[in-house]
Design a protein that fits this description.
Radius of gyration: 22 Å
Number of helices: 9
Helix content: over 70%
Largest sheet: none
Number of strands: 0
Shape: flat
Distance between the termini: 62 Å
CATH class of the largest domain: Mainly Alpha
Order of helices and strands: HHHHHHHHH
CATH topology of the largest domain: MetI-like fold
Strand content: under 5%
Structural class: mainly alpha
CATH architecture of the largest domain: Orthogonal Bundle
CATH superfamily of the largest domain: MetI-like
Length: 240
């Protein structure tokens, strides 16, 4: 058992470790993509214009309503098929494959954006409106209000929700294995199929997912405490 999980030529430990790193990188890129798109979705939902609100709600409904695996298949296999057909129009031969890592991260990122958009929207609504009015009354420009007051508080309120979205994206990254990229799920399947020791390697894969989950939960908790420190100090300094 230890030999199979080791880092020698006969072991699969090196492949599993690299696959876990790939999973971590894939989820991180997906979260960043989702943050950019999710911020736009939140802004659309908070807009005073009905057209933008409808667009934001439509985005959320579409990417929440379609199964994640189908979205990944559509982006990777469907996108590669469309690109191949376009290439034939210009004289290219053979199948043109889209990069699985980038397409997988994009697909998971767009899925997470439908949830991040709601997280950012709720966080924006949780910001004390009186603080924004006071800043405007003091003559602060809009960009400074956004950077000094709005953004720090939105991130503080959004972090618990973003932690949940991260966990969801981490698990969704296993679906990218259908593209052939060797992430943690794919590596577990390869090791189990080659050795016929399915229980051992699927259990090892589950353990590595749990390690990533505990590590990321700890990181989010520390970041949340760090962003909350100024507000805790302010509360302690207020007279009773």
């Amino acid at each position: 058992m230890l030999t199979l999980l080791g880092f020698s030529d006969q072991g699969w430990g090196g492949l599993l470790a690299m696959a876990a790193l790939t999973t971590l990188c894939l989820t991180t890129v997906a979260l960043l993509v989702g943050a950019l798109v999710g911020a736009a979705v939140a802004a659309a939902k908070l807009s005073t214009r009905r057209l933008w609100r409808v667009a934001g709600e439509t985005y959320s409904i579409v990417f929440r309503g379609i199964p994640e695996l189908l979205i990944i298949d559509l982006f990777y296999f469907g996108g590669s098929g469309v690109l191949t057909q376009v290439g034939r129009w210009f004289g290219a031969d053979g199948f043109i494959e889209l990069p699985p890592f980038l397409i997988g991260a994009l697909a998971i990122g767009l899925i997470s954006a439908s949830y991040q958009g709601e997280v950012y929207r709720a966080a924006r609504l949780a910001v004390n409106h009186g603080e924004l009015e006071a800043a405007r009354a003091m003559g602060m420009p809009r960009w400074r209000i956004g950077v000094r007051i709005l953004l720090p508080q939105v991130m503080r309120f959004a972090l618990p929700g973003l932690s949940n979205v991260w966990q969801m994206s981490l698990k969704d990254s296993a679906l990218v294995s259908v593209t052939g990229i060797i992430e943690l799920m794919r590596a577990s399947q390869m090791a189990a199929g080659s050795t016929r020791d399915y229980f051992l390697f699927y259990l090892a894969g589950a353990a590595l997912y749990l390690v990533l989950t505990v590590f990321s939960n700890t990181a989010f908790a520390r970041l949340e405490r760090f962003l909350s420190r100024p507000y805790h100090r302010k509360t302690l300094q207020e007279p009773s």
